[in-house]
């Protein structure tokens, strides 16, 4: 079937929407048309053997409980319909279409019936019947010839995907939740397979691909098409999981219609209900929801992380509760085939947050650290904004693999494609830009060439790591009793909890010593102890320390306060933090996924930094080695920043004078 014929069929099916107008909103058309398209296709597939199946049913003994396997063998399909109805016979009883249609749906095998149930089509039957539309809609579909002899599995897939695209574009407000623009998927798939052309053109090759947030299955379909073009004899077994019932049904129906293994598409939340547990894949793709919180599955995720560590899915760390992007990535990495099995590659769509959110030691930073130190991050590709339907923000591809080619090992490629786009003819939600075929090819060429240029930067892994050190300065105090320090004492929580007579007695005792100052904490504490005794207050160590601290005043000329060992105490108000670039490091590979760089190795680096960058300005500063952390972030936009000098002042002045002259001319016209 030609592309024109596919579009004609899609147009004919789409014409059913004319009947729905007024009763359904445009964004709701798919709730009727998609499940009925699935049912009509299944009806056409089973039509040649329908009579044989019904005849066989009459011959089967009544004691046989599980009839499906026998009847499926007669039908020659992995599903069967055991009702007496077809789409044609449904029209023979116009007054009872709703009941007969329900009976027809109930007659399907569980695999097919599950799809219709997830569409919640029973609700639509009631709605259509209530408005006297059910007979008209069913009769329209009965006129559509979707027999496999007329529409092949491949063409039926294209037809169904065209309908999905139409409905997703109509539902702009939610399209991005389950529909990724096709040109974006084409680019992802190109990058995913970019170094594997030789591998994928071998005769009879069989590969597996998983999308753990598969939506309507667009990524799975495009990946199949791509491999088919590379090698018609190759086979890509696709797997998916989806949490939204309707989009799950759409994806599974697409697989069933195309003759794929529909059972590989599973329903449920990938985080707390992993339907592919223990399975490993050659390729993985995903466009998970941006910035979605994972509070609903927090207990399950945290329990797994604590109990299993790196033996589970979330050993590297947990991100903030309001963004589960990195949970998806860790989940996908856990599904990659190991290097011993040939390795795997994955591509995922993120917003900008995973690049840099979270300071050193945070969950996000630790996840980035684990991925980069294990040499799994191959590249980050910056995409144009306004590329998706429900958001105008900038997005990024992360390509992660445990089988980098030799030239890429120990390195990360950054590709800036933010200005490579074509304006759409009309806005689709917030989508105002798209990628042409030529632009996709150009981005793929830049990626595959792996050469630095204006749009490509290549860095060693350690470029994105840094040591976060804590710089301390000594605490220098003098102690004095003044109106200000008395106010500080009165504001203490421990003082506020006292009865009013005790509080007033303490403040009166201190006012008697107004103007006193003390060179050491010991002297100050002795005076405060006397004041507490005279006020009749129970003199606990905690209370005494609090009131003594309240009369301390920072003074750069005062002596340094030390601990019992004579070491200077740090001043929290003067505490500062410095980020020191990591020196070259050795790469830790997946044979030791929990490998970490010991900060002791970097003492020399830190001391050199302190001597050259800190002590020339604050000679008494030191760093606290117990607080040193290693962090990772990917400041992609900074690496592509191009400085533009400001315009000359003379040019700006000339422009201002020209504007002033223009304003004066306009004013003179008004005053005439």
Q: What topology does this entry show?
A:
Blueprint: H1 3-14, H2 17-20, H3 30-46, H4 50-59, H5 68-75, H6 87-90, H7 97-106, H8 110-118, H9 121-130, H10 134-142, H11 153-170, H12 172-178, H13 182-192, H14 197-200, E1 206-211, H15 218-230, E2 235-242, H16 245-257, E3 265-267, E4 283-286, H17 298-308, H18 325-334, E5 345-350, H19 353-356, H20 363-373, E6 377-382, E7 396-401, E8 411-416, E9 422-428, E10 431-434, H21 437-449, E11 456-460, E12 465-472, E13 477-480, H22 483-490, H23 493-496, H24 500-511, E14 517-518, H25 521-535, H26 541-550, E15 552-554, E16 576-581, H27 603-614, E17 622-623, E18 629-632, H28 636-639, H29 649-671
Parallel strand pairs: 1-2, 1-4, 2-3, 4-5, 6-8
Antiparallel strand pairs: 5-7, 6-7, 8-11, 9-10, 12-16, 12-17, 12-18, 13-14, 13-15
Helix pairs in contact: 1-11, 3-11, 3-16, 4-5, 7-9, 8-16, 11-16, 13-15, 13-21, 22-24, 24-25, 25-26
Account of the protein in words:
There is one protein chain. By secondary structure, this protein is α/β, with parallel strands linked by helices. Helix content is 44%, strand content 13%. The chain has 29 helices and 18 strands. It is elongated. Strand 9 (422-428) and strand 10 form a beta hairpin. The strands form 4 sheets. It has a 9-stranded mixed beta sheet with strand order 3-2-1-4-5-7-6-8-11, with helices on both faces. Helix 1 (3-14) packs across helix 11, helix 13 (182-192) packs across helix 15 (218-230) and helix 13 runs parallel beside helix 21.
């Amino acid at each position: 079937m030609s592309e024109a014929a596919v579009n004609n069929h899609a147009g004919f099916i789409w014409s059913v929407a004319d009947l729905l107008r007024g009763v359904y909103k445009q964004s709701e058309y798919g709730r009727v048309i998609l499940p009925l398209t699935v049912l009509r296709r299944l009806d056409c597939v089973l039509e040649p053997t329908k009579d044989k199946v019904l005849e066989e049913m009459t011959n089967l003994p009544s004691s046989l409980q599980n009839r499906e396997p026998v009847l499926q063998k007669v039908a020659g399909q992995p599903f069967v319909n055991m009702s007496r109805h077809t789409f044609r016979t449904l029209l023979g009883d116009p007054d009872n279409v709703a009941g007969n249609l329900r009976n027809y749906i109930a007659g399907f095998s569980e695999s097919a019936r599950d799809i219709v149930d997830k569409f919640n089509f029973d609700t639509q039957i009631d709605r259509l019947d209530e408005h006297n539309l059910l007979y008209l809609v069913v009769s329209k579909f009965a006129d559509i010839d979707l027999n496999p002899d007329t529409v092949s599995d491949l063409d039926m897939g294209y037809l169904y995907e065209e309908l999905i695209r139409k409905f997703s574009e109509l539902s702009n407000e939610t399209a991005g939740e389950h529909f990724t623009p096709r040109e974006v998927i084409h680019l992802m798939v190109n990058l995913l397979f970019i170094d594997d052309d030789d591998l994928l053109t071998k005769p009879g090759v069989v590969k597996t691909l998983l999308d753990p947030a598969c939506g309507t299955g667009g990524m799975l379909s495009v990946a199949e098409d791509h491999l088919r073009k590379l090698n018609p004899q190759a086979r890509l077994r696709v797997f998916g999981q989806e949490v939204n019932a309707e989009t799950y049904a759409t994806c599974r129906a697409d697989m069933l219609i195309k003759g794929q293994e529909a059972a590989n598409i599973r329903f449920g939340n990938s985080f707390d209900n992993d339907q592919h547990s223990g399975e490993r894949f050659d390729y993985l793709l995903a466009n998970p929801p941006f910035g979605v919180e994972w509070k609903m599955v927090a207990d399950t995720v945290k329990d797994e992380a604590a109990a299993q560590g790196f033996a589970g899915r979330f050993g590297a760390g947990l991100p903030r509760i309001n963004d589960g992007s990195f949970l998806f990535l860790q989940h996908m990495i856990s599904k990659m085939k190991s290097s011993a099995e040939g390795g795997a590659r994955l591509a995922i769509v993120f917003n900008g947050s995973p690049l840099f959110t979270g300071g050193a030691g945070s969950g996000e930073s630790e996840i980035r650290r684990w991925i980069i130190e294990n040499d799994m991050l191959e590249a980050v590709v910056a995409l144009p904004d306004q590329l998706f339907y429900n958001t105008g923000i900038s997005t990024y591809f992360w390509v992660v693999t445990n089988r980098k080619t030799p030239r890429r090992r120990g390195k990360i490629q950054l590709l800036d494609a933010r200005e490579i786009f074509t304006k759409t003819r009309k806005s689709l939600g917030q989508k105002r830009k798209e990628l042409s075929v030529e632009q996709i090819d150009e981005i793929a060429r830049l990626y595959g060439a792996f050469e630095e240029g204006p749009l490509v930067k290549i860095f060693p892994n350690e470029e994105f790591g840094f040591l976060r050190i804590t710089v301390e300065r000594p605490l220098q105090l003098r102690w004095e009793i003044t109106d200000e320090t008395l106010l500080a004492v009165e504001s203490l929580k421990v003082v506020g909890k006292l009865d009013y007579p005790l509080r007033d007695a303490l403040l009166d005792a201190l006012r008697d010593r107004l103007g006193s100052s003390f060179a050491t904490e010991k002297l100050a504490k002795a005076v405060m102890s006397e004041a507490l005794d005279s006020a009749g207050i129970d003199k606990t160590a905690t209370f005494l320390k609090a009131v003594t601290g309240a009369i301390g005043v920072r003074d750069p000329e005062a002596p340094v306060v030390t601990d019992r060992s004579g070491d200077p105490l740090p001043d929290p108000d003067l505490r500062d933090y410095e980020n020191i670039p990591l020196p070259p490091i050795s790469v830790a590979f997946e044979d030791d996924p929990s490998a970490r760089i010991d900060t002791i190795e970097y003492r020399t680096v830190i001391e050199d930094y302190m001597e050259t960058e800190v002590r020339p300005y604050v000679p008494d500063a030191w760093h606290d080695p117990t607080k040193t952390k290693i962090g990772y972030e990917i400041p992609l936009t900074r690496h592509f920043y191009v400085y533009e000098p400001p315009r000359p002042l003379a040019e700006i002045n000339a422009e201002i004078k020209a504007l002033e002259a223009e304003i004066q001319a306009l004013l003179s016209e008004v005053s005439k």
